[in-house]
Amino acid sequence: MAQSLTSDQLQTLPELAILAALDAVLQSTIRALYAAHPDLEEDEENPSIPQRMTAATCAADAIIQLSETMLDAIARYQRANHHLLYFTSRSPSCVGDPF
Asked: What's the pLDDT at 4?
């Protein structure tokens, strides 16, 4: 979630606060796991599939895939509720009130 949420928007959709935090944690998790297991990061020119994946590498790969699925679900939820945020952000009471 790139935009700051106002208190009025969070009053309308309070779950967006924790979803924004979860989004940030999942993105950080993916970056950290790719740093710890660079063999999992595919290069489009030279796709590499590790010859023999360790148990930790397999688990990291599963976590990355599940995290990406969760990020997609969070984005879908945000898009599905975008109209509520748009109308809330247009109300005069939230002008200049970033949360």
From this structure: 79
